[in-house]
């Protein structure tokens, strides 16, 4: 199997472009899922305090037998902990649950603009990065106006902006802003929680390339330049989702997928939370 491409972040660190998400995997099942993913070739695991499975992620990494330095791990502070001191406490708790000395990427999970604490949260992330306890820092679910405010009021450009992104919601404006400012766009819910997978356009492209519809969408994400983190608990699908380097979508394929845009979200609009 081809090795997973690495993207260089604006702080000089690198991130594997294809990762494994663990949202809604129960804590008791997480370690085994992580081991399966790492055995399949993933080297990037995405968790969060809100997922309540950070301990399982840390256990899975240790159980895999891989060196800690070979596995890129992301975690996030939940929006109810936004704020300077509360974010520092949340980071310490995530580090303790993972059982690590450092976190490769730590994100603000949601800006929660109504509570208006994401700027001070970002300053706390700047501190843990300066201390070397987070190698890279970034944000999730930030609209461009949230990013503009960070640019005005703080000193560090996020390395990553992780947003809901799939064929129904390709986020062209966010991706263009991120690219212009040296921010890597990362896709959560890359398959729209599986709901795009009954689409006849994707079925046709899958048949054309001899792959699954999910592989078509993951390949589309990679060709857009996104980091993508599909999630599954099925060992077969975990392995299938990483097997996307033996084909390439052509211009007609990409144009066909572009027709699926509807603006539909599977999660909340970031301006509506908190």
Automatic annotation (TrEMBL):
<feature type="active site" description="Proton donor">
    <location>
        <position position="51"/>
    </location>
</feature>
<feature type="site" description="Lowers pKa of active site Tyr">
    <location>
        <position position="76"/>
    </location>
</feature>
<dbReference type="GO" id="GO:0016616">
    <property type="term" value="F:oxidoreductase activity, acting on the CH-OH group of donors, NAD or NADP as acceptor"/>
</dbReference>
<dbReference type="InterPro" id="IPR036812">
    <property type="entry name" value="NAD(P)_OxRdtase_dom_sf"/>
</dbReference>
<dbReference type="InterPro" id="IPR023210">
    <property type="entry name" value="NADP_OxRdtase_dom"/>
</dbReference>
<dbReference type="Pfam" id="PF00248">
    <property type="entry name" value="Aldo_ket_red"/>
</dbReference>
<keyword id="KW-0560">Oxidoreductase</keyword>
<dbReference type="InterPro" id="IPR020471">
    <property type="entry name" value="AKR"/>
</dbReference>
<protein>
    <submittedName>
        <fullName>2,5-diketo-D-gluconate reductase A</fullName>
        <ecNumber>1.1.1.346</ecNumber>
    </submittedName>
</protein>
<dbReference type="InterPro" id="IPR018170">
    <property type="entry name" value="Aldo/ket_reductase_CS"/>
</dbReference>
<feature type="binding site">
    <location>
        <position position="109"/>
    </location>
    <ligand>
        <name>substrate</name>
    </ligand>
</feature>
<comment type="similarity">
    <text>Belongs to the aldo/keto reductase family.</text>
</comment>
<keyword id="KW-0521">NADP</keyword>
<feature type="domain" description="NADP-dependent oxidoreductase">
    <location>
        <begin position="24"/>
        <end position="259"/>
    </location>
</feature>
């Amino acid at each position: 199997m081809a090795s997973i491409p690495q993207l260089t972040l604006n702080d000089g660190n690198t991130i594997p472009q294809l990762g494994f998400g663990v949202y809604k995997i129960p804590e008791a099942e997480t370690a085994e899922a992580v081991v399966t993913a790492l055995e399949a070739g993933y080297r990037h695991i995405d968790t969060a305090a809100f997922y309540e499975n950070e301990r399982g992620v840390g256990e899975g990494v240790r159980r895999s037998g891989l060196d800690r330095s070979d596995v890129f791990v992301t975690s996030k502070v939940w929006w109810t902990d936004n704020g300077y001191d509360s974010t520092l406490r949340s980071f310490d708790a995530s580090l303790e649950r993972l059982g690590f000395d450092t976190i490769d990427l730590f994100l603000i999970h949601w800006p929660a603009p109504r509570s208006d604490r994401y700027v001070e949260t970002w300053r706390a992330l700047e501190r843990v990065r300066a201390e070397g306890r987070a190698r890279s820092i970034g944000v999730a679910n930030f609209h461009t106006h949230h990013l503009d405010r960070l640019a005005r009021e703080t000193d560090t450009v996020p390395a990553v902006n992780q947003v809901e992104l799939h064929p129904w919601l390709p986020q062209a404006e966010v991706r263009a802003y991120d690219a212009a400012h040296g921010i890597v766009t990362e896709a959560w819910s890359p398959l729209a929680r599986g709901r795009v997978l009954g689409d006849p356009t994707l079925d046709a492209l899958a048949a054309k390339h001899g792959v699954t519809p999910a592989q078509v969408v993951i390949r589309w994400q990679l060709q857009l330049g996104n980091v993508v983190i599909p999630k599954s608990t099925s060992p077969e699908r975990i392995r299938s989702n990483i097997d996307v380097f033996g084909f390439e979508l052509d211009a007609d394929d990409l144009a066909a997928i572009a027709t699926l845009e509807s603006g539909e979200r599977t999660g909340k609009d970031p301006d509506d939370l908190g």
